[in-house]
Amino acid sequence: MRRLLLLAFACKSEPEPPPPPRPSPCRTPEPVQTGEATHYAADGTGKCSFAKPATTPLLVAAASHADYASVASCGTCVVVVGPDEAEILVRVVDRCPACKPGDLDLSHDAFELLAPLAKGRIPIRWLPVPCDVDGTLAYHFKPGSNAQWAAIQVRNHRYPIAALAVQTKGGLVPLERTDYNFFVGKALGPGPYTLRVTDARGQTHVDTGVIGPDHTGSAQLPWCP
């Protein structure tokens, strides 16, 4: 009997290790970029079609064609370090076709916090960071949107927006992003809509009852750990 007990004990399998922790949905942040900064007469709207900011100073930037990445960088917040180690926080709202990769065209107010405007061009390094936004996501419908054609823009987001989809009877339908930073869909009906937002870190949020021309969402996309 003792031998049988020993054999049974020997045959008993070791407990399986616990499963590994689930990976964070947040992707690895971008590396530090280097380039040069110039300045232009920005008004805060630009190619990204955002509303004109009501606050001053106006701290915005236009990214190079490469860094603009076919509208994907719209709304990115960036810490910019100037030649004297002064730091500013700007938001990408425009595209700079003449800029080289790594360059930023800053608003006059932003450039002046790093160097006198007369400098014209200065060396910089910069890093995308989360936007310190207040409140929830917001949705803006382009004028002229209707049941047959609608263009929707996500605003007040912490990270750049990667995708927007609408819930239909047949399932989630991705909306097509335009180069002017609206997501367009056809024959969506009169609304209200259920929308799923995906940010550049892979995080998602669903809002229901979304209706134009402007709608305040129910939450903000979370900070990435």
What does this structure look like?
This protein has 225 residues and is mainly β. It folds into 2 domains: 33-129, Barwin-like endoglucanases (Beta Barrel); 138-216, Expansin, cellulose-binding-like domain (Immunoglobulin-like), CATH 2.60.40.760. The chain is built from 3 helices and 15 strands. It has helices at 2-11, 65-68, 108-112; strands at residues 33-40, 60-64, 77-81, 87-96, 104-107, 122-129, 138-141, 149-155, 161-168, 171-174, 176-177, 183-186, 193-199, 204-210, 214-216. Strands 1-5-2-4-3-6 form a 6-stranded mixed barrel. Strands 11-12-8-7-15 form a 5-stranded antiparallel beta sheet, with no helix packed on it. It has a 4-stranded antiparallel beta sheet with strand order 10-9-13-14, with no helix packed on it. The N and C termini lie far apart (56 Å).
User: Number of helical runs?
Assistant: 3
How would you spell out the order of helices and strands?
Answer: HEEHEEEHEEEEEEEEEE
- Looking at the overall shape, the CATH architecture of the largest domain is Beta Barrel
Total domain modules: 2
Estimate the helix proportion, in percent: under 10%
Question: What do we call the CATH topology of the largest domain?
Answer: Barwin-like endoglucanases
Strand order of the largest sheet: 1-5-2-4-3-6
